[in-house]
Amino acid sequence: MEGVVKNRIIAILAILVIIFFLLWLTASSSASKQKANADSKVALSMELEENNVKLEKEKSVLAEELKNAQAQSAEEKTSHEATKKTLSQEQVAEQALKVELERITRLKEVLEKDLKEALAGQKK
Q1: Buried b vs exposed e over 54-72: b needs ≥16 C-beta within 10 Å?
Q2: Number of H helices, E strands in the chain
Q3: How many CA atoms lie within 13 Å of 76's alpha carbon, on the beta-carbon side?
Q4: Cα–Cα distance between 122 and 124 in angstroms, integer?
Q5: What pLDDT digit, counting tens, does each position of 87-104 carry?
């Protein structure tokens, strides 16, 4: 009887060893999957951080380009206003010259008429 009890205890212990071994395999597999997930998250986090740094650099470059474009636009606007003012002044001067030319043309016509009359008066 002692041999039967010993064999039963050995069988029970063997079953317990197999159960614990299977539990250990399951736990090991689960830990491996969790580590893989954690590694994946870390890799993704690093990739996102690199993209964030890249985008921040691009943002600063674009901000600098925008600032330069705004400065250039302001310079061009100032230049345009100066050109507009000069054009306006030239148009005023042109108008004044046209008026003066018309006045001189009328004066010339009057003088020519007077000269013709004087010449006609001398011939008589």
Answers
A1: eeeeeeeeeeeeeeeeeee
A2: 1, 0
A3: 6
A4: 5
A5: 999 999 999 999 999 999
Angle at 6 between CA 5 and CA 12, to 5 degrees: 90
Q: Which tokens in the block code for residue 81? A: 């206003």
CB neighbourhood size of 88 (10 A): 10
Alpha-carbon span 67 to 120, nearest angstrom: 78
Token pair listed for 94 = 């042109």
Q: What angle do CA 106, 109, 110 make, to 5 degrees?
A: 85
First to last CA, the chain: 178
Rg for the chain, CA atoms, rounded: 52
Which among 75, 77, 73 has a CA at the least distance from the CA of 65?
73
pTM over 0.70: no
pLDDT above 80: residue 124: no
pLDDT digits (tens, 9 = 90+) for 18-62: 999 999 999 999 999 999 999 999 999 999 999 999 999 999 999
